[in-house]
Amino acid sequence: MVETAALPAVLILNWRDLRNPEGGGSELYAEQVAASLARRGHAVTIMCAAHSHGAPEERTPDGVRIVRRGGRHTVYARAAWEYLRGRLGRPAMVIDVQNGLPFLSRLYARRPVVLLVHHVHREQWRVVLGPLAARFGWWVESWLSPRVHRGCRYVAVSESTRNELSSLGVDPERITIIHNGTPPAVGALAPRSAEPTLLVLGRLVPHKRVEVALRVVAALPGVRLVVAGQGWWLEPLREEAARLGVSDRVRFAGFVDEGEKQRLLAESWAMLVPSLKEGWGLSVIEAAAHGTPAVAFRNAGGVAESVVDGETGFLADSEEEFLALCARLVADPALRTAMGETARAHAGRFTWDETGKRFAALVDEITG
């Protein structure tokens, strides 16, 4: 199949897409970039794992072709097979999204390859996998990938990710930082909740450490928590909420559509991000767009950049401090208002339009 678009074709390899129940910020980033490139005239294909919530192949309203093949672990090999059989078109460039494991597309795609990295998974391997698998995953990420992709360009979503990649031997001069964007909040979709309400937004997996938020609620009588998202760690979280005696004050909302998500962001008094590691902290900026401050951990990667400590929210150095900062926000409406106003202005600096423009410029530079 020969691409007929006026601009060079681009292939994006990502292990999931947004329709996947486990899809999250990484998938949103990839699809926003894909849509932006397609609107500019590039033929864009996303190859990802198959799942029951999406057809084997579809085309988005922006013209992005999404191909779903293979499973959670076989998608990497399947991508190589589909590419070599010519089923993914003839891209002028490949964007290899390294979510811990890269597709190693440089080994078979005789085209320029750009590695897109949200964060380095150093701490997460042991949390998500057993000892042997974790060791293998970290070896691929820290040793094999930097060597296979020596000479390739990289995109990092934050300065912290750029620094981590540099520590693995990636030439910092080859790393471009292109931040996440966020859509502007359209008015006040809902008033603030009359009751103190905190929000956790994201996939329910161990390294998101939602248990920390549950312990915050247990320590603050009268405070409610909404956990929006789905994942295989849901039942252990329900059990922990019951053990702490807070089941009546915690609502597990499951998957929420965009409208419901925006309503929750507007209603909440604060966004909690207790995650072990985030490349940027997209939910932080989404909340900020509604004037909702965030509390996160200082050593959790890119959130130390998406949260301006003491201005748009707080960064904690320990769980005890995390709890104390949450308590402070709940108790001080003037502080919440001031931080919310600063957060809203901060969020205005990060738009998907700007992300798309910067990525398009990189594509032009590499393929031009």
From TrEMBL:
Residues 24-183 form the Glycosyltransferase subfamily 4-like N-terminal domain. The keyword Transmembrane does not apply. InterPro entries: Glyco_trans_1 (IPR001296), Glyco_trans_4-like_N (IPR028098). The keyword Transferase applies. Keywords: Glycosyltransferase, Transferase. One of its GO terms (molecular function) is glycosyltransferase activity. Residues 192-345 form the Glycosyl transferase family domain. Coiled coil: none annotated. Belongs to the glycosyltransferase group 1 family. Glycosyltransferase 4 subfamily. This is Glycosyltransferase family 4 protein. It comes from Cryptosporangium phraense. The lineage of its organism: Bacteria, Bacillati, Actinomycetota, Actinomycetes, Cryptosporangiales.
